[in-house]
Amino acid sequence: MVLWAMAPEGARLFSWALALSALLATLLAVLLARLLLDQYWKYMELKSIPGFSPWYPLLGNALLFERDGEAFFRQMMNYFEDFRNVPLLQLWVGPLPYVILYHPDTIEVVLSSSKHITKSRPYEFLHPWLGKGLLTSTGGKWRSRRKMLTPTFHFTILEDFLEVMNEQANILVQKLEKHVDKEPFNCFFYITLCALDVICETAMGKSIGAQHNKDSEYVRAVYRMSVLIQERQKSPWLWPDFLYHMSRDGREHYRNLKILHSFTDNLPVSRRKHYVSLIISSKGHDTTAAAMNWCIYLLARYPEAQRKVHRELDDVFGDSDRNITMDDLKQLRYLDCAIKEALRLFPSVPFFARTLLEECYIRGFRIPKGVEAIIMAYVLHRDPDVFPEPEEFRPERFFPENAAGRHPYAYVPFSAGPRNCVGQRFAQMEEKAILATILRRFRVESTQQRDQLGTVGELILRPNKGIWIQLKNRSSSGS
């Protein structure tokens, strides 16, 4: 009797469940159809632009991508070099259409505009790590944070920061001393930890001693997060949060996120703590460390350029071991050119993207509103019409007389236009100060070939296999 009495109620619940399932299935079908239709119309609007193949609905070109970081970077750079003479390319990552730009005039259309300052949608995957800081925010929030941060890089404040840079550079040199006249070693993390100490001490006024903790869990987490985020960006099936959190990569992302957040949460409180997240977010992660490593590598591989740096350092400092001043940095013109040339060959951020908020025309092609634009700095900087023999390291390219008349958007290591890097003066000063301190003391050598670097372009351009160098004391090496 009881079972018989409950039967109608059970039937009603079952009917409700069926109706709800049908409704959800209908909504899903409508959303899917809308997404497919939107993608189809965008595809038709962009079909005149050369593109990648194969292309699939919803997935775009994502199945084409190599999964390994080194292989993916090599794959993309080979594609773009093959299409060097094509004005622009289209690429689909899942349902998102991109136009790929790597010529100065095409890049200028986007970067010179005050309209196209919104970061591309895949930058949203940085929010759990960096929040909506200067790097990832847009619109009014970006403008207010930029305005707040700009005074931090005023000349008089930068001069105060130089004291910290000298202190940390001297610690770095002491750490490197043990490698003099020894076997080749990987200098990448030595320089990275020095840069981390600089950024944290200038932000807080207190050192965190990263250089004294070589096995830094924080640094390892930064680079692992870079790998995970890029993998997610190129894998549209990992975009939905609920799917990502269930995946192996999602669980590893969460573990590394805890390490990174605990690092910043445990920093000492000071009157400048308010700026920590802003300064770290404005860099994203350590672009200056990458730039210094690439410059060391190139000077080690091009001894004549290194000799010119040494002669300049001797002219400025003689035999003195005094700290570097702002006036000294102004006189280090050849070193400045060497850093610029290293950033040409190995830009710390090899590509970056914007969402086009209004229709525009690029080389006669109509680009509709909502398309993402990727600026390929790594390819742009290798344009043989602008930089003859582009793979050669020639600091002289940046002598004033040689750079005169060059297209203003042919070289964009710090982006350009209204959303250029607010911290570029800080970065350039840090790179010159630390590299000058290293090169005043040592001569650097390397037998590592370019194809042995394992270059990957995740959030920054880095050598997956490290930078392997040998050190000689200049006083005993005759240089």
Structure description:
Helix 7 (188-204) packs antiparallel against helix 12 (287-301) and helix 8 packs across helix 10. It is built from 19 helices and twelve strands. It has 479 residues and is α+β, with helices and mostly antiparallel strands. Strand 1 (89-93) and strand 2 form a beta hairpin. The protein has helices at residues 2-46, 69-82, 104-111, 127-130, 139-149, 155-176, 188-204, 217-233, 241-246, 248-265, 276-283, 287-301, 303-317, 326-331, 333-345, 377-380, 400-403, 424-441, 474-477, and strands at residues 89-93, 96-101, 118-119, 185-186, 351-355, 360-362, 365-367, 372-376, 442-445, 455-457, 461-463, 468-473.
Quickly describe the structure:
It is built from 19 helices and twelve strands. The chain has helices spanning 2-46, 69-82, 104-111, 127-130, 139-149, 155-176, 188-204, 217-233, 241-246, 248-265, 276-283, 287-301, 303-317, 326-331, 333-345, 377-380, 400-403, 424-441, 474-477; strands at 89-93, 96-101, 118-119, 185-186, 351-355, 360-362, 365-367, 372-376, 442-445, 455-457, 461-463, 468-473.
Question: For the largest beta sheet, what order do the strands appear in spatially?
Answer: 1-2-8-5-3
Proportion of residues in extended strands: 5-15%
Which residues form runs of ≥5 with pLDDT under 50? 1-6, 271-275, 277-283
CATH topology term: Cytochrome p450
CATH architecture designation: Orthogonal Bundle
Helix coverage percent: 40-55%
Overall mean confidence score, pLDDT: 86
What spatial form do the alpha-carbon principal axes imply? Answer: globular
Give the CATH superfamily: Cytochrome P450
